């Protein structure tokens, strides 16, 4: 059965982000013990941080990326930081309706919305923090 390559497109494409790796090629040369790391929440967060950073590079100077974590009840948490919580969960520190909050979710049910907004003149551009394996990535 021929594989449908359209199913292998990245789950998120961003304007100006190109050269995304072919998952089949990566997995074919990856040692067996590293394949599960590729599936981890840490790798998901690392790839997201990279995509947001690349996306930011292509934005006009007066725009910035924004990430919302979508909850099952329809509420959206404005993401300040996003980190791994074990192998398969993510933890979000953010705000919900202006109130600080923390959201922990299994990565299989974690949904995000990324968009851009104009930077308010009286406020500096806001960076989003990503935490993976003890490393902090600002994007």
Describe this structure in words.
The protein has one domain (21-138). 20% of the residues lie in helices and 36% in strands. It is built from three helices and seven strands; from the N terminus they run H-H-H-E-E-E-E-E-E-E. Strands 1, 2, 3, 4, 5, 6 and 7 form a seven-stranded mixed β-sheet that branches. The longest helix has 17 residues, at 41-57. It is globular.
Record the SSE blueprint.
Elements: H1 23-29, H2 35-38, H3 41-57, E1 63-70, E2 76-85, E3 89-96, E4 99-106, E5 111-118, E6 129-132, E7 135-138
Parallel strand pairs: 2-6
Antiparallel strand pairs: 1-2, 1-5, 2-3, 3-4, 6-7
Oligomeric status:
single chain
- Structural class based on helices, strands and sheet pairing: alpha+beta
Rg is 16 Å
Global shape: globular
What's the overall average pLDDT, rounded? 79
How many strands appear in the DSSP assignment?
7
The first-to-last residue Cα distance is 40 Å
State the helical fraction. Answer: 10-25%
Main beta-sheet annotation: 7 strands, mixed
Run of helices and strands = HHHEEEEEEE
Extract low-pLDDT stretches. none
Give the amount of beta strand, in percent: 35-45%
The overall number of domains is 1
Total helical segments? 3
């Amino acid at each position: 059965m021929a594989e449908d390559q359209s199913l292998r497109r990245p789950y998120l494409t961003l304007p100006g982000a190109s050269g995304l790796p072919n998952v089949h090629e990566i997995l074919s040369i990856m040692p067996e013990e590293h394949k599960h790391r590729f599936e981890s929440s840490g790798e998901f967060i690392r790839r997201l941080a990279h995509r947001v950073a690349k996306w930011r590079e292509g934005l006009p100077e007066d725009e910035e990326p924004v990430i919302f974590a979508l909850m099952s009840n329809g509420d959206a948490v404005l993401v300040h930081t996003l980190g791994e919580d074990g192998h398969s969960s993510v933890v979000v520190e953010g705000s919900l309706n202006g109130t600080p909050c923390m959201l922990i979710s299994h990565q299989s049910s974690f949904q995000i919305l990324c968009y851009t907004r104009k930077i308010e003149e009286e406020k500096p551009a806001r960076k989003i923090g990503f935490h993976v394996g003890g490393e902090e990535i600002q994007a």
